[in-house]
Task: structure prediction
Amino acid sequence: MATVQTVRGPIDLDSMGMTLMHEHVFVLTPDVMQNYGHEYWDEEQRVADAVVKLRALKEAGVDTIVDPTVVGLGRYIPRVERINAEVDINIIPATGLYTFDEIPHFFAYRGPDTLLGGPELMTEMFVRDIREGITGTGIKAAFLKCVVEAHGMTADQARVQTAICETHRETGVPITVHTNAAHQTGRLAMEFYARHGVDLTKVVIGHAGDSNDLDYLKSIMDQGASIGCDRFGLDMFNPTPERVETIATLCSQGYADRIVLGHDAACYMDFFSGETTQEILRQAAPNWHYLHISTDVLPALADKGVTDEQIRTMMVDNPRRYFATETCSQGRGSSTGEA
Result:
């Protein structure tokens, strides 16, 4: 039986069930926390709050979240492991590097074409996370996370992406890439991956669902990759009714087998630290939470004619296929959009 790595160890792919493909437990800034965290961070409170929120998500029918929190977003697996011990939900961890432009100085002077030279540290770290485990926990990463933002494929970003591609080719794990839909940077990611030997069926172009440009979205899916319609609740990027209309249209055209869903939400992000800022965020994005898809989006999709089978395809079959070790042929193999 094929398996996928989770915070609680490997599970059968068939045990993934209903899956949200882009959710964080925490997004944090460790340097700030270490120096100013007393102004907003209480470890026990935040852990207890996360347990409550994840239990509510499980009760809403979601079995698995795919968590793309990596270096640059405050990944700390022991904290997530502690929370997961109290919640019967699968959390799939990632490795990679989150940066919009320049790489951290930690990498800048070592590696190919740098002052000190040597092998690519990022590739070594990513492979170790996948094969040996993260931070001495023994918990293994199951996929790669990276970014192509509005800055485009800068020299530093290309170095990260090269390490991502090397790791993908060596280990076979899939890739989720944060992109900027307004700038259509998913095109840059797809072009880079195609040139570097990536199996495009193992790629999710994250945040593509911020766009309603059907030609852009279909250009990604026609190459075999999946689009992440994974920011439900962030209406400032794309209102929920428009996101729903776009997905319904794509499903009617046979693309359900290349769409995955999520919120890009978290139990807590210190980008919005402090109670005052948290309240402003709740007012600005009242539906940006784990339950929006289960409570609001799935009924709205059904009202637009998306079938139960297509919803299962997007939330069960596509995530399971993404993590399967056997690869699918590149390009579109079916026009039905259904499993």
User: Anything to note?
Assistant: Residues 327-339 have pLDDT under 50 and may be disordered. The CA atoms of residues 76 and 135 lie 8 Å apart. Residues 43-59 form the longest helix (17 residues). The chain has one domain: 3-323.
